[in-house]
Write a structure and sequence with these properties.
single chain, 412 residues, alpha+beta, eleven-stranded mixed beta sheet, four-stranded antiparallel beta sheet, 11 helices, globular
Amino acid sequence: MTLRKKCHNELVRLKGNIRVFCRVRPVSKEEMDTTETKNIVTFDLDDDAILHLSHKGKLMMFELDKVFPPQATQEEVFKEVQSLVTSCIDGYNVCIFAYGQTGSGKTYTMEGIMDNPGINQRALRLLFSEVAEKAPDWDFTITVSMVEIYNETLRNLLGDNPTEKLEIKMCPDGSGQLYVPGLTEFTVTSVEDINRVFELGHMNRATACTNLNEHSSRSHALLIITVTGVNSSTGQRTTGKLNLVDLAGSERIAKSGAEGSRLREAQCINKSLAALGDVIYALRSKHAHIPFRNSRLTYLLQDSLSGDSKTLMMVQVSPVDLNVSESVCSLKFAQRVRTVELGSTARKQTENSSTSSSPTHDSVELDSPPLTPVPTATPRGSVGSTTQTPTARTASSTRRKAQQQTQVSGNN
């Protein structure tokens, strides 16, 4: 098991602290029926990390860690993220979050449908299978919570009163970890348990109609999975957390047609997503002060965006020209996220003790003032949105093939 963990985590580390995948949704039936609709997205047949987008007569190139075309299945997507999911069994903090405009397919990727589930349910099924294989040497407990952030208010989706406001607190044990007092947790051991939990959580989540999506999610939804394990022989204990996040849709207020309460919802969503951008900018620039407390979203995700975590962002993109501005913004943000270095990961474990130790974040100042990114010149050779040229494409493909050959040689 020790060798497996060492090889597994070295592989994830080599792939980057924050990995960024892109999934392009299919063109909808309504869009197909509109003669004015144009497909603006093309793919590189030689490199599955490259996406091309036509905008204002230019072909822009975006390089990420993996690009899924519209025909990609739920199974294919999950296969690429399952190594991160199993890391929480070994005591690591893991976060997978879906980002993109309303109607780009975030909820489908994370939740899926009854007969074709998404990452959330597949992750729990995988965890059940993995912990069963480790018995009887290890005894694991899997608990789940579901929360939403609606209008900057934290709500307990599994509690008796989902409208009750919850607060995020620092653990009094001095560990530096965050927790939410009063948050309902359910222990799950089977698929039936998962279905009951999801049904309750979905029933309580805030949704509403906008011009962009007739059943648009008006909140950020987080599925929090905690895996605790005890080795029956040595007494070693591990605690890992998996955050699966379906972010509310990023959208222009004028385009969404939001009014009244819907307008306030859109403003709060955009504010929290802007705060996420500020945190990413501060991390990328290695600032001493990281503004996690500027929104409930970034404060709750602090453990997932700091040095003791493994994080993956799934940016969802629409392939049609009607949404080109939103797609460009999402992809540019994704490329900025991809350059963030969180630092080395650490797992939470103790030996022969009933209390799990966890790393502190002494280098992160939580009470930092709001941070607004300022435009900076892009240095030559940096990754960004560019006009595609044959030379750039060839260099990118050659570089990635060389990296893949290096990894294969290392594994052998």
